[in-house]
Design a protein that fits this description.
alpha/beta; six-stranded parallel β-sheet; 4 domains; three-stranded parallel β-sheet; 12% strand; globular; Rossmann fold; Arc Repressor Mutant, subunit A
Length: 484
């Protein structure tokens, strides 16, 4: 079972001073469901050498690892192993046999069969927490070490503990959720409405929250996700429902906050003005199960793309060297295209054929200097992410035709010399990371006048501002905005 504390216990062993003094090197690898020998060996080598490797064939990788481990009393932790194929383990074990006597491999797994395949010692099985331990943990999280417990909350807390089912993750998460809550009605609310979700059903979520939560399954386990980007993707797929006069971004923020308060999301970190978070692997499993249930088949492991007509989302992780117009035309239903950080030098003009595209991510492509004018045909485009495109010097002149654009992310586009004409006509725009003042009237700072922007904006080339245009009519920016 997940959430019992297997990884936490392994981490305590791994970081114990006695272990540190006894083993060298110490390597920690998160395996998950992909027990791929080449990937695992590459990650072990990278961990030992503390640097990234380029692409290598399996044989030289095996040789390199054996050279590094030969005669060493190493400790290798393989966390969250699912592989039940004995042959795969035997091949990896053969490579690892070069260590000194006493070298050890520690594995965590939810599957008893994995323990019997990989283990030479009797597995240590973690059981569910006793109700007493579960109660102590929940109280510690909810009240800390010093505060006196409100005795009126004790019977409600005991009921909550019973519903935790002895799962460590549930006790920890609920304890954190109850922290600073001191009213009986607040504890009763947790007991009556939040707990069923923490017992792995999660089916009491409203439909819009369920869709948004399950969509997180498209990100691999342990991915550090960015809040604003996720909200943009929710919008792209139509998961967010209008609420009165609220902008969809605000609706998405409410949904995200609700998922966080229900402890579906964790490990929040704010970098600059962006919020990052992760999902516990158990919670990710639940998201995956919900996501799979909404598809036509829950057992799809590999898709060979032959018919592109209904594909709605695609991303690449390697450099794409060539395109053809016919290739791009096949993805006629595409809504999401992620081409971030792949070394892209030029976006093909056939991008204009993707008329249903709503989200285009080109961030981190350092060599892109300009974008094709055909990009401006994308009338449904809501998010254009160009942050970190250092060499980008200009946007297409007809960018103002992107009438649905809500997010134009230009942070880190240091080479941008001016804005395209009439950017102020993009009245749906909510996020604009950078505004480079141009010399012409149509790209002056006055273009910001009619925009209802949020977040922060960096305004460059202020020496080009023509005061006459500033004096005609004042510019109003949202109170939230921060001019850098």
């Amino acid at each position: 079972m997940g959430g019992l504390g297997k990884t936490t216990l392994a981490q305590m062993v791994f970081n114990d001073q006695r272990v540190i003094e006894h083993f060298h090197p110490k390597i920690w690898i998160c395996v998950s469901e992909d027990f791929n020998e080449k990937r695992l060996i590459k990650e072990i080598v990278e961990s030992i050498e503390e640097k990234s490797l380029g692409d290598m064939d399996l044989a030289p990788l095996q040789k390199k690892l054996q050279d590094l481990l030969n005669g060493k009393k190493y400790l290798l932790v393989l966390d969250d192993v699912w592989n039940e194929d004995q042959d795969k383990w035997a091949k990896l074990r053969q490579v690892l046999k070069v260590g000194k006597s006493g070298a050890s491999i520690l594995t965590t797994t939810r599957l008893e069969k994995v323990g019997s395949i990989m283990g030479t010692l009797q597995p240590y099985e973690l059981s569910n927490l006793s109700q007493e331990d579960c109660w102590l943990l929940l109280m510690q999280r909810a009240f800390g070490h010093q505060e006196e417990i409100n005795h009126n909350l004790v019977p409600i807390g005991k009921e909550i503990v019973k519903k935790c089912g002895g799962v460590l993750l549930a006790a920890k998460t609920l304890g954190g959720l109850l922290r600073f809550k001191r009213e009986e009605r607040e504890w009763e609310h947790v007991r009556d409405s939040i707990l069923p979700a923490l017992r792995l059903s999660y089916h009491h979520l409203p439909l819009d929250l369920r869709q948004c939560f399950s969509y997180c399954a498209v990100f691999p386990k342990d991915t550090e996700m960015e809040k604003e980007n996720l909200i943009s993707l929710w919008m792209t797929h139509g998961f967010l429902l209008s609420k009165g006069n609220l902008e969809l971004e605000n609706v998405g923020n409410e949904v995200w906050n609700e998922l966080y308060l229900r402890s579906f999301l964790q490990e929040i970190e704010v970098k600059s003005v962006q919020t990052y978070f992760k999902m516990h692997d158990l919670i990710h499993d639940l998201a995956t199960s919900l996501f799979s249930a909404s598809t036509s088949s829950s057992n799809i492991r590999e898709i060979i793309v032959e018919d592109y007509l209904h594909m709605m989302s695609i991303g690449f992780t390697e450099v794409i060297s060539s395109y053809s117009r016919s290739h791009m035309q096949k993805f006629v239903s595409l809504r999401v295209l992620n081409l971030s950080c792949i070394g892209l030098k030029q976006l093909p003009s056939s991008i204009g054929d993707l008329v249903h595209l709503r989200y285009l991510n080109l961030s981190g492509n350092l060599s892109i200097r300009c974008l094709p004018k055909q990009l401006c045909k994308l009338q449904n485009l809501q998010t254009l992410d160009l942050h970190g495109c250092h060499s980008l010097s200009c946007l297409p002149k007809e960018t103002s035709k992107l009438g649905s654009l809500r997010n134009l992310l230009l942070d880190g586009c240091y080479g941008l010399t001016c804005m395209p004409p009439r950017i102020g006509s993009l009245t749906c725009l909510k996020t604009l990371g950078c505004f480079a003042v141009g010399r012409k009237k149509s790209s002056q700072i006055g273009e910001l006048r009619n925009l209802n922007l949020y977040g922060s904006i960096s305004i460059t080339h202020l020496e080009r501002v023509r005061m006459i245009w500033m004096q005609r009519k004042p510019i109003y920016l949202q109170k939230k905005i921060c001019i850098l």
